[in-house]
Here is the input.
Amino acid sequence: MRAIILAAGRGRRLMPLTDFIAKPLLPVDGKPIIWRILKNIEEIGVRDAIIVIGHLGWQIRKYLKDGELGINLRFVEQEKQLGTAHALNLCSDFMKGDFFVMASDSIFPTKHLKELLKFHSKQGCDATLSLKRLPPREIEKSSIVSLRGDSVLKIIEKPSPGEITTDVASSPLYVFNEKIKSYLRVKKSERGEYELQDAIQGMIDSGLKVKGIFCEEWKHLSDIRDFLGLNFRYMGTYLKN
Here is the structure.
């Protein structure tokens, strides 16, 4: 099993920490968050991974050694932050069979990773999304998803108020097959980026099978509040014991 980890972002909402430390190396309970992500995917059978690096990428290369936690690692540099579809396109030669795509700032339980992969395989999906429900104040910052049953009908990255018709959003975790490669050359969004969500919408519009399942709980590192909350949560586990 393979995985692509997107780790090129600057982490602007975590500045000034990320002025000096690559966001994926910020500690969660004493270990960089990317280490925890690699540990989880190794436990479910991932043996090869590409990490897309950018801002302070040399720090990530220096910290992670090939074979770390039993995973063969490769690094690809995204010199300009042109979006997630652009980042994935840099890894097209690596895309064989089914593979995970995930962000480097989100920790998903191994149980959900297994469930997502099992569902993808059993349903014969071309793309499977991890889903969540969000309150109104957060939904406009996410990728909203319109569903019919478990089938994804529409996905929009950072919707305008008039486009918000649901509380369902896509988490930064996916399983794809090789067909995604044909849809990554998308137009630039209004944000000036090539969005993975537009590639997924292209798959849907072409009649490919795109579905999603919900994740009960996952840990996300997007701003200083998240950083403090994650670490206090781990500290609470020790205090209980």
Notes: The two ends are 35 Å apart (CA to CA).
